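User: Thanks for the earlier help. One more: LysR family transcriptional regulator. Can you show the sequence and predicted structure together?

Assistant: Of course, both are below.
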Amino acid sequence: MQKITSRTYPSTMSLRCFEASARFLSFTKASQVLHMTQSAVSKQVAQLESSLNTTLFERTLKGLSLTPSGQVFLVETQNILHQMEISVLNMLSHGAEAETVNISVHPTLCARWLVQALKGFGKVYPKIHLDIQEQINSAEVDTQSTEIGFLYGDGVWRDMTSIKLFDEQCIAVASPDLVKQPFNRLEDFHGHVLVQSRARPRAWEQYFQAQNFLNEYPFMGPRFDTFYSQINAAITGCGVALIPKFLIEQELESKEIIQVWPYAVNNSKGYYMVYPTSMANVSKISTVVEWISSKIPSFD
């Protein structure tokens, strides 16, 4: 195994040269983007390969192509350079006195609830910068990169303090262009496309089972990652969607969509704000937690 020393670590310039060369599969195009000579770019990449003791490019008369190792390292390099850019921009934008709170939240919950809940926070606390990352998995949080998370579950996560935001009540909705009026009986679901959730593949089956109704095709229909996409699918007439009611209050009020059947699923799980228990007394964390907590009654 190669001995790792401080000299082994590649320079930022060599990473930039590699990333640009890999993106264009051309040292010449990379040099134009980086405002360097072609030979300088080629030399930086060669030095990088030497320090890694790995060939990143196959060089042929037809041009460059990434080796398997090069393909893997390209993804890592792009992540590194992206994080460096974000860190520099944060420092330039907020200065040395600013503190950053890393937040993770499901895209639909972010757009439909969190954005409104955080309205005015920046004016009151200009030295706390909120870095909000949307994540599809709303049941777990990466404690390595997240300080405050908004999760769906039973409220119990290891080493985390959780504060309940609200329960979830799911209803069946569709565009009035697709369904002219609410159904008179459960059999009216037959013949309609059921919009599916990738995160909750058994949602429709459980919805019908709770009413002792047999639908032979509860898993058939277009499948989406987020409620946001399912809402849009319902609005555009793609089918009937099963959506948490609090996410579609505006659409129900404006009649963009209608509730097609009166039954609502009261799920045992709910939405929570969570943060590491060890960070409970960290000022920036407690400030955000207190702000969100004060907004819960408005959305309950």
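User: Great, one quick takeaway?

Assistant: The chain has a mean pLDDT of 89.
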